[in-house]
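Repro:
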Amino acid sequence: MLNLFFIGGAGFLGSGIIETMLKTSQCKVVVLEPLYANVSRLDGLNVTLLRGNLSDLDLIEIVLKQHHIDKVVHLVSTMVPGCGYDEYKQEFENVIFPTIRLMQLCSRMNIQFVFFSSGGTVYGERKTLEPFVETDPKEPISYYGLSKQMIENSIQFEHRVSGLNYLIFRPSNPYGHGQNIHGRQGLIAVALGRILEGEPITIWGDGSSVRDYIYIDDLTHIVSVLINSGIMNKIINIGSGEGHSVNQIVAILKEVVSEEVKVDYTPSRKNDVSNIILSNEELYKYVDFKLTPLKEGIALFYKTIKQSIIGNGK
């Protein structure tokens, strides 16, 4: 039996991973969320939910001991890629520094630290469509990417000085059921939300920027296998290995949805990278998987949203 402690497990990605792991493996899950956090995505899942903050290290130490935790899974971030210095400063105080203290605690207790970084921002700018590999330099151009880089560097420092066991995942852009269609990030989700409201999709720049997208069920399956595998001290991209431009996403949406698709192009933002594609060659060393084609995944997501709207009587 694997005992897991998720910090930030009630979000889109965390709840999906937890649901998959509970279905496919023998594990017990404890989730820590702040008092104000919406935890509705955990409804119906067999988890122990605790309320507290990442900075509550005394509480966390008690939880780790009482529940005999084997792995801490860290998914906490208060930022999105467009955030600026003020949000970064708050992230450092409320997330990055407390996370470093948590790493030290995990090292002392011989608990593996699993961190979700950002394959979409931590590498930085690249003008070509060559996929990023895990050994490429980390040169973020956004404060969001910088925050992820700082935590990654701290993990590897703690590994060198105290033997912390870790896994660092660099996911691409996940999308699919359970994602907030009225949120601040996730092109496909936000675009579907705008379409269903009859509003135009806002595109920063000319729509030529390329991203790597992965369907949520594929990502949660891959992560479940990796967490259960016993792999230690690796950095692994989790993406499709393929890139699609924003304009290509819009074209797919026009094929999939029954509503009119309207688009507004606005000037590009300086902290947006041009192209991000993640190599999955390293990933295939540990997991055998078949990915959902992008058009099929978007159609599944759209169908789920429409069924939810009908079910709610809207």
